[in-house]
Amino acid sequence: MKIKDELETLTTTQAILARALGMTVPRINAMIKEGIVKRDPADAHGGVLIFESLRNYFSKNAVNEGDADFNKERAMHERAKRKLAELKLQKALGNVYDAKLVERVIIEDLVKLRTRLLTIPSKIAPTLEGKSKGEIDLFLTREIEETLSELSQYDPAMYMSEDVENDESESV
Predict the structure, then answer these.
(1) Which domain range does residue 111 map to?
(2) Do 130 and 82 share a domain, yes or no?
(3) CB 117 within 8 A of CB 144
(4) How many other CB atoms are there within 10 angstroms of residue 143's CB atom?
């Protein structure tokens, strides 16, 4: 089909425009009321101006997509802020611990354990001299259990980071 008239005056029916845009005729009517789709004033059958209607439709959608991207980004930002606030609250309540802090505390505990275990032989060697195998076994077992018991005292404050402790002392 060859277009002989000017593009600004080219018209079509609402049904054809709806089909071309993948919409329904009632949606086209709503867009006419919104001022997006323009009717041809010279067409008594209610034809719509193709060029102006499509220009309005696509320019409005470009603006809306920009708004949608901005709103989507804002929602993602707010979600991230909420998650950080929830994490900070859980940390303050002692339900969540910082991984680096836990690692540091565990390393400190393992160093203490190693040190304590290495002192056992020199500590009990003099008392084991001349003892039977069963008595030596009993002494060693008791000493190891005592050392492990001392080191097993759990203190949640060890896992609290300084910033959480400072926040708690400021709020009291």
Answers:
(1) 97-171
(2) no
(3) yes
(4) 19
